[in-house]
Amino acid sequence: MKIRAQILCLLFLCHLQFCKAQKSQSTNTLPKVENHLKGELDYTHEALELVQMQDNGEEITLGKINADGTIHFNLLEFNIKTLFDSIPLQPNKFQNWFSIDSDCKDRDVFAETPFDDIYSKKYDPIFIKKYGVNIAALYPVSDEKIVSRNNNQRTISPSEATYFWFYIDRAITFKEECTKIAMSTGTIYAEVRANINFEKGWNFIEENLVEVQNVVQDDSQTTTVRIIEFKRISPANKKVKWIIKHFMEDEEIQVLKKLYNLTPISKEQFETWAPNKLGDLSLTTKEYGNPPKGRKNKNNIHLIYANESQKKEIDLYVVDFSKSPGDAEMIDFAYAMENDGKEEKDIKPYITQYNERENITQLWYKVGDRMFVEASGANIKAEDLWGYIKKMKLEKLL
């Protein structure tokens, strides 16, 4: 019995050593971020969340960057066919993900192929989310200088490569070659080769610029045909450099941080504030938590004011950005488009759009960095609609 106990003890110790070795090996094989950004993107203070957006508008988590800079991917399986069947959107043709498309010489894009019923999706890049907003991206490349280029993922020299995660609904072998021609001139500009043994689910793919042919003529050199290869690779391969690139300046991120940490306006505050009249219009509808069309933020109040005798009506939402600072992105973009090229004296505090056919004025107004008003006025001109909005005394909500 004593010998048996000793054997069991030895086996237990060996098991512990094996577990430690496994843990050490898995840690050592994790990919790691190459560059280190200070400020809010300093991962040594707290882990950074990695996300991407599905075609149905739902966000998925892909993992995190740990405090030591290692990247832990948490790639959950999902039913990609069900996802695409649930939305009125056809998935991208499988071969197109690998640049094998209508530009390929002697290829009938309408011909049936063995890959026509495949459901697949390219996830590129991976976003870094903080304060409810994608403030940066994580790019896998063969050289950090690729990320510094304007379009991030442009390989221009031989042996440069970029990488991406790819999801597929089945395990297949995909082997294709394609000669790319310029449709306008018929000249060859690339040779594309793919040789990939896909596993069902997630696969990490390398797009490698193998060769660029140079032509010397009359003391000048021009670059011509690019030879590009696609293949499967490990994300922990030492060839892969994981680089963070931010989208926002520090000042913009600080605004997001402030909004994210604010206490939201409560239902009671919204309802107590809502005026019963706006000039000659009376309140007919007041509801909390019903977001405007196309938006998800439920921290809002929906109000309708009307004057039936004059057939005037204002249907509006007041939305609070706290805890959801990403909601400001769309309105910021609209302001930028509306005021592009204008002199400061010509810039109004609001944006309007008029539908002549229905005699409806749409108005959008951002209240500082905190709130947003979306209003629709029937039989009301833009200046008059703005006059009604000013009567609401929105500053009292703050």
UniProtKB/TrEMBL annotation:
Which keywords are on file for this protein? Answer: Signal
Residues of the signal sequence?
1-21
Q: Which superkingdom does the taxonomy of this entry point to?
A: Bacteria
This protein is called DUF4367 domain-containing protein
